[in-house]
UniProtKB/TrEMBL annotation:
UniProt name for this protein: GTPase Der
Subunit structure: Associates with the 50S ribosomal subunit.
The organism's taxonomic lineage, starting at the top: Bacteria, Candidatus Desantisiibacteriota
Pfam family, one: KH_dom-like
Domain of life: Bacteria
Positions annotated to bind GTP 1: 10-17, 57-61, 120-123
Amino acid sequence: MNKPVVAIVGRPNVGKSTLFNRMSSTRQAIVHPTPGVTRDRNYIEVSWSGIEFVLIDTGGIEVNSHDSLLQGIRYQAEMAIKEAAVIVFLCDGQDGVATQDIEVSRMLHKTFQPIILVVNKVDNILREPEFISEFYRLGMGNPIAISSIHGLNINTLLDEIISHLPQYKEISPIDEDTKDERKKNQIAVAIVGKPNVGKSSLINTILGEERMLVDNVPGTTRDTIDTLITWNDKEMILIDTAGIRKKAKIEEDVEKSSVLRALAAVKRSTVSVLTIDCNEGLTEQDQKILSKIEERGCGCIIAINKWDTRPLDEETETLREAYANFIREQIPYLVFVQVIFTSALKNQGITRLLNLIESTAQKHRKLISTGKLNRAIEKACEEIQPPTIKGKQLKIRYATQVKAGPPIFSLFVNQQTLFTPAYSKYLMKKLRGEFGFEGVPIKFAVKQK
C-alpha cells in the first residue's frame, strides 16, 4: 500500500523547512532566514507511533506574484496540496495573521483534504492563548501552537496528523529489518553538474511531471531533493542537486550550503551522473566535479544534455562517437567513465540512461570469486610480463576481492615498489574487460608478502 502524504504549506519564512527537519529528525532541508530558499518539493518518509507517511516540504506561497520563479514555487506547492492526504498550514505566531496568510487560507479553503492550522514560533507555551487567538479568523478550526526550533508540541502535531490519515489504524507497524534491506538494495543516483545544464529537467522528464522547479535563472535548485522511482523492479533514489559553481563565484551563504549538499549527495550515491551542456563541452569545473566523483569511488556516467539543440544536419552516429571521444581525451585518468547523449526537452536517451544507471550499479556491487580473479590475473601476466626493476621482477602471488561498492582488490606481491603505476593501469584495464566493470572505478590494495 502507498504511504499517505502530508504537505507542509504556508507563506515564505514561517519555518516550514525547520518543521520538516524537526518532524523527520534530519537536516535534509536547507534552513536560512532569507525568504524563498525552499523552491522544489522535498520528500521524506516519517514514522510516528508505528505509522509511516511521506512528508513534503514546500516553498513559500506568494499567491499574487507575477515573477516566473515565484509562480513556479507556487505551482510546486499546489502540486503538493493535490497529492496530500493531510495539509499542515503553517503560520508565524510572532508576526500574527499576515495578508499572505489570508491569501493562502483562501486557496486552501477550496481543497477537500483535512487541514491542520499550526502556529509556529510560539516559544513560550504559557503565552499560547495570546499568540494563537487571532488565527481563529482564518476559519481553519483550532490552531496548534508549536516551536519547530525548540521542538515544543511537535508530538501533539504528529498525533493530530496520524489521526487524519486514511485507514491509519490498518497500516502495519514498520518492519525495521525489511526497511533496512530495502534501503540496502536501493540505487542512489546523484544528478550533478554546473548550474543551468538541465539537471532538474532531466529528472522531471524521467518522472513524467514537473516535480523539480525549472527556470533559466542559474541556481534555481537549492536543496538536494530525493525522489524514489522504480525501474525494472529496482528502486532508485534520484537526487537532484544544486549547480556547482567555482568557489570564487559563490557569494551567498545559501549557495555555499547548497553546493556542500550537492557534494554530500555524491558521497552517498552509488552512481553519479555528471550532466553537461553539449554546447559548452567539458569545462574545468566539470573536471573538478569528476575528481570528487572519483574520490568517492561511485560509478560515473557523463550525460551530454541538450543534444537536441545541435543542428539537424550534424546529427550522426559518427558525430556522437567523435564528441564522446573528445570528452574522454580530456579525462584520460578516468577511463572507466561512460558517456551518453540526452535531451530532457525531447525525452531522448532517457530510457538508455536509466538502463545504464541500473547496469552500472550492478557492476559497482559485483563480487568476483577468488579463483576467477587469480586466473584472470595469471592470464594478464602471461600476456604482458610484470615489470623488472634492477634485475628483480614483480610477482603477484595471490589476489582477492576485499570489498564491493566500489570493487577493491588486495594484491599480495613480492615487493611493493615493483608494482608500477603503468602495470597497475594495465591490470585494471584487463580486469575491467574480463569482468565487465565499465563505468566503475577499480582500486588495488597492494601488500608485500
